[in-house]
Amino acid sequence: MSKRVEAPLPALLITMSNRHPALLYNISQTGAQLRAKDAPAMGTELFLQVAGLDVYAHVVWTSGEECGLVFEREIRAWDVELLRTEACKGTQAKLTAAEKGGADDWVAGVAR
Q1: What pLDDT, on a 0 to 100 scale, did the predictor assign at position 92?
Q2: pTM of the full predicted structure?
Q3: CATH tag for 5-107 (out of 3.30.230.30, 2.40.10.220, 2.60.40.1180, 3.10.25.10)
């Protein structure tokens, strides 16, 4: 089992019929957990785009606005570490609580 790392970053879930803005919670070499308003249904095949990474995956579980993905092919440990590092850079930007909430709402499609 590959290690999951927290990597809160904006992401995009692209299906055959829709594009779902999302927030990546965590990622491993084999899958990811995200939150998206109108998250794709379990079994949906899609492309995950996040911080320059494009990976083919399918939804293996959903719970409200959260979903879990399994990647078609394992990604490199290096890519997981790059995403973790990218997320840490954003965390260090010293956003206020209101700014963080606004960004989260925007990613979820609430504030558009």
Answers
A1: 46
A2: 0.78
A3: 2.40.10.220
